[in-house]
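> run fold Methyltransferase domain-containing protein
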Amino acid sequence: MTADKISAAAKTNAATYLSRIPNAADPARRILVEYSGIAPDAVDAHIYEIRDKAWAVFPYGCIGSFSFLDLTAQAQDPRFRAVVDRLKAPGSAEAFLDVGCCFGHVIRQLIVEGIPGGRLYGTDLQPRFLDLGYELFRDRAKSTATFLAGDMLKEDDSRLQGLDGKVDIIYASAFFHLFRREGQVRVAKRMVRFLNPDNPGVMIFGVNGGPKVPGWEDYVLDVETWQQMCREVGEATGTDWRTETDVEDTDERITVRFAVYRAS
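> ok
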């Protein structure tokens, strides 16, 4: 990432840089106390320190706003809760992958909920974010989850090839809207390669959306464009998919929760 891009992003996202940690981070605070063993009165200082280190790597809005600690989307998403039950089911050996996982807070939540770390994977473009995740949760020595840095836009990125055919459930929260349509198709095709070909119940799910600023349609997948993309990806990969979408649409913002399943 060039210095010019980092500087431009810092200016664009300056308004997202909060001086106080929002209440939405409270569940993550509890994880830092109960899982990471950080003293309650030391948690906030620890969070500020990690946030500022991450902001220096790349000033994403989700970093400045502490959204990397917000577990509200998972708590309110019935599909996510169903996935947790599925992963915890007796005899389950299914593998879960969080793409664009940043610090891996969702992975740590699943570990706290009793999912074996050996079945949990996270990827991110920024290897430094993965390192900061270990620093944030202080679990480098004890975590058995696997975190891999790699570029989802590059089909030949060897760092991610070890996941091919191994994953049953892919979580893509606040991920697809990082790309324009061509990039969305490319990352979706890469996800298909990750999925277990022997499991008819594989799925990709998550949420994408954003404010309706000029050009938002190029980034946010709505009901129609989800279906179009899945058809295009299916034709390119020789697979067949069905989609589910739940849309919250106002004059100012659109949020789309989605799930993609292998068609029977």
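The chain has a mean pLDDT of 92.
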